[in-house]
Amino acid sequence: MRTLKILIVPLLPLAVMAAQVRAQSQSLPVALFERYLESLRQQAGIPGLSAAITRNGQLVWDNGFGYQDVEALERATGDTPYPLLDLTQTLSSTVLLQQCMEQRYLDLSDRVRRWNSEFNEDNTTVAQLLSHAGASGNFQYNSGRYAALTEVIAQCSSGRYARLITEEILNRLGMANSVPSHDLADGTPTRHQFTNNERDRYNAILRRVAVPYKVTAGRATRSDYARPALSAATGIVSTVRDLARFDAALDEDILLEADTRRRAWEAAGAAPTGLGWFVQQYNNERIVWHFGLARDAYSALYIKVPNRKLTLILLANSDGLAAPYTLANGDVSVSLFAQLFLKLFLT
Fold first, then answer.
1. What residues are paired with 125 via a beta bridge?
2. Would the pLDDT of 80 be above 90?
3. Neighbours of 133 (CB within 10 A)
4. What CATH number does the domain containing 340 carry?
C-alpha cells in the first residue's frame, strides 16, 4: 500500500503574514492565502484538501491541494466530494427554518417532544436544540442529540427529510456533485426515496469521494470510515464548489428571509451558537462558522464574515482541520487555518 510522507514546511509567524498583506494590494490576499494554506496542509499532514472563497455571492477562488486518493495519485480539486460531517447542520437548520418556522407550522419555542416523542428531554425547545443548548440554556455541543431534529423537520413539514434536503437545497441550487447521504449506496430505507436515475447519479458521485486517511508520524494510511446514516446532524456529501452555491444563496436571501437569517446568526444567550451555527466576535467582526470531524478520516471548516459577505470553505480527507483544536468549545480562532484566513482578510 502506498503511503504519503508528509513534508513539514516552516511557516512564517501569522503576524508577519498579516503585515505583508497590509503592504500589498487587494488582489494579493488570495495568492498569499493559497501559499500559506498549502504549507499548513503539509504541516498538518493532510493528504488532500479542497478550498473555496466566496465574496459578495460569487465564487472568487477555489483550489485543491495534495491527493484525494494517495494510492492512485489522484489530486484533490474543487469538485472533489467529501462527507460534510457536522457541516450538514448548516443545511438542515436552513431547511427547518425555511419549511417549518417561516411557514408558521412550528414555533422555535415549541418543545422538541411536541414534534419528536422519542426525544428524552421534556422541556428543551427547538431553538435550544438548534443552538446545542439544554433546557436551562447551558451549552452542550452534541451531534447525536442534534440528530433529533430530523424527526422534527419531517413532522412539521409532512415530508421525508432526505427528499427535503434534496429538493429544497441540492436540486434547487444546482449542487450537481452533492449527495443527500451515503445511505443511497446501501440497501437502506433512505435509498428507496429516490428514483433509479437519481441513485445511479448519486452512486457515480460516491465513487469519487475522497479516500479517508489516518495520519501517524507524518505518514498517511487509508483508514476505515463508518458512514453515518443521514440525519439533521450529519450525512450529506458535497464539494467546496457546491457549498459555495449554498453559501451564496444564504447571502442573497434565496433560501431564508433576511430576518430569519439574521436570527440564525445571532448568539443564543450565553451560548457560542445561533440556530445551526457557531457565532462569535473577531476583531469587532461577527463570525459565523461550523466544523466537522471524523477521527482518522475527514474534517471540515466553514467560516463566514457576514458583514463583508466573505466566506471560507475547507474540506479534507484526514482529521487535520479539526482534531488538533477544541472547536466544539465554540472558538474558531484556536484553529491555525481559521487564523490564517482571518488575519489575512480581516486585518
1. 111
2. yes
3. 21
4. 3.40.710.10
